[in-house]
Amino acid sequence: MAVTQADLERLDAAIAKSAVLQSFTVGSSTWTFRSAADMKALRAELARQLAASGGTARPYRLAATRKGV
After folding, report:
1. Residue 18: which of 35, 5, 43 has the closest Cα?
2. To bridge 33 with a disulfide, which of 13, 19, 38, 50 should be the other Cys (CB 3.0-4.6 Å)?
3. What is the pLDDT of residues 35-66, one digit of tens each?
């Protein structure tokens, strides 16, 4: 399944409207939702797949600490 930025934007628009879609199709895959939480979980997964296919590195944080007390 090839996720595109347009797919992600379509799902973002539905989440922003607070509308719970009955189903969402990307390519040949279709998802059915029962709640907004299901939509947000799919959005996170699609964003992960899009980042992986585009070669985008995962964000990370570095901690700055001092030695001693």
Report:
1. 35
2. 38
3. 888 888 888 988 888 888 775 555 667 777 77
Q: Is residue 21, in this structure, part of any structural domain at all? A: yes
Model pTM score = 0.65
Tell me phi and psi for residue 3, to 5 degrees.
Answer: -90, 135
The three-class DSSP label of residue 43 is helix
Whether the CB-CB separation of 28 and 56 falls below 8 Å is answered with no
In the chain, the number of structural domains is 1
Length of the chain: 69
Domain that holds residue 39: 5-54
* Residue 25 domain flag: yes
Scanning the structure block, which residue is given the tokens 């930025």? Answer: 5
Angstrom distance (rounded) from CA 67 to CA 65: 7
Amino acid identity of residue 19, one-letter, is A
